[in-house]
Structures are given as structure tokens and as C-alpha cells.
Amino acid sequence: MKNIETKWLQDFLTLAELRNFSHAAAIRNVTQPAFSRRIKSLETELGLNLIDRSKTPIELTLHGKQFKTTAQSILQQLDDEVNRLSGSSFLGRHTVRISSSHSMAISVLPKLHTCLFNPVLNTQLSVVANEVDEAVKLLIDGKCDFLFSFYEDRLQVAPYRSIHLGRSYLYCVSAVDEHGKALFDPAENDAVPSLDYTPESYMGRALQRSNRVLTQNTVCTSSMTDFIKALVMQGKGISWLPDYAIKDELAAGRLQILSAREPVPLDLYVYRYHSRLHATCEAIWSAMSKMSPIDGLLGRD
């Protein structure tokens, strides 16, 4: 058993947040030399370098980023147990922090309700939806327990773990007229208005890798799938949209797939750090690992 003091963990988390020894020491109400010794004691006890002191502002090492999740989990578990014993914990709930891409938060997370809202676990979810790169950064920085996003090379190896939730596809779609016919067809007119993803967005990069283009008549670009979907539904142009986001619209005949454009595959994942999480998070992870691919995707084998 490592001889680690809880105040060292709190010191470390404060430093990880502020990235400055003097500022963190002031917050922790100790002198900077004493604060630095406590951080060094934590590193010595762990046998790991947690802080890259050569950078200004300081940065966490890879071990530091991974241990940040561990430290947060340890302190949360201790706080939960103290509150439970004292009777002050609100319904004994543990907060599970989730980071997600916008489109998955809206269309995919609700499909996981049996795992995430298991009444036996008595959890409280804290969900932050961002653009993909920002959502990924929250996991890398140790600011969430789970990340719901797409395939990422850097998250497929240690210190991360992942579960493949299912395969989705980006389909090229158009709104329809009163007769149910597509408003636009690039096979007949290569100048129809197109609604494109920004090149730096995840969807934009996925389409670039697959060499998928719409038309030269781009009338709007955005990184947000739901914004593009709204414009497509208003008849402003054609675009690529993930099947999980347009299932209802396709079923109702309000959107039509332009079959001349081959769909682009998207693999959906949930990621976490390898470090052991709170028991509630571990139970959710175990439930997700046992479930079948998400129902409702239009994916093809």
C-alpha cells in the first residue's frame, strides 16, 4: 500500500488545473516550497513523474494525465462514503462525467439509457457536448469519466480503453418536395447548393479521407451536424448526415438518400482511461461492454 496523503492528491489536482506552482500553492494556502515538496513526495511515492516542469506553463506528463483521473476518482469515492456515513449524501448518488460529440449526445446517448440510467446504480449524469476535438480533449485532460465519440487512433492504445458501440454511415441526403421527390439531385445538376462541414471538423476530415465531395456550389459550412441537418430540412441544399441523426426523417419520407453517392462509414466508440474508476462508472462500463450494437442505426455490414 502506497503511503499517499489525500492532501497531496488535492494539491496535484489544483496544480493540474492552474498549471502554475505559485498560484496553486496560494490556493492551497501553503508556501510554494512546501507545496513543491508535497508534489515531489507524491511523485516519489508513486515512482512516477507527473509534472513536466520544463514547460511554461507546466504540463502533465502522460502518467500525470492518467493519474489525474485516478486522483479524482479516489477523492470522489472518499467524499461519497463520508457523506453516506454522515447521512448528508443526496440520495447517495455518484456523478458520472460524460463528454460527447454534439450529434452523439443528441442521437446516441439516449439509446444507452438502460446502461446509463440503471436505477440500481443511482447515478447522476453530467453531460458536456462539444465539437469532437474539444470532447476528446476533456478525456485526455482527465476532466471526464467517459468520452462518446468516433474512431480515434490515439485513443485506441494505452493508457485508454474503448468499446465499439456500432457502425454508422454518412449518407448524402436532400429534402423532398410535396410529391416526395428529392429537391436536389447532383446527378442531374452538378451546381446544386451544398452544405459542407468545415475542413477541420471530424466529419469534414472523414469526408476528405474518403475523397467525398458534394458540388462546387457551397452555400454554407459548419462543424455542427444538427445545424447542417436543419438547413437540409429547410431545403437549402444537400449534405452528408449520419444515419443515427436522420432515421426518423427518412422513415417519414421527409429526407431522401441520394443513392448515387456512396455512404461513408463512421465507427462509434466510448473511451475511458485505463485507471480504475468509481464503482458506479465501472458498473456502467461493464454493462456497455456486454450490450449488442446500438439499435436504430442504418448501418450496413
Automatic annotation (TrEMBL):
Top-level taxonomic group: Bacteria
InterPro entries the UniProt entry points to: LysR_HTH_N, LysR_subst-bd, WH-like_DNA-bd_sf, WH_DNA-bd_sf
Pfam families: HTH_1 (PF00126), LysR_substrate (PF03466)
HTH lysR-type domain boundaries: 4-61
GO molecular function (one): DNA-binding transcription factor activity
Keywords: DNA-binding, Transcription, Transcription regulation
Family: Belongs to the LysR transcriptional regulatory family.
Name this polypeptide is given: Transcriptional regulator
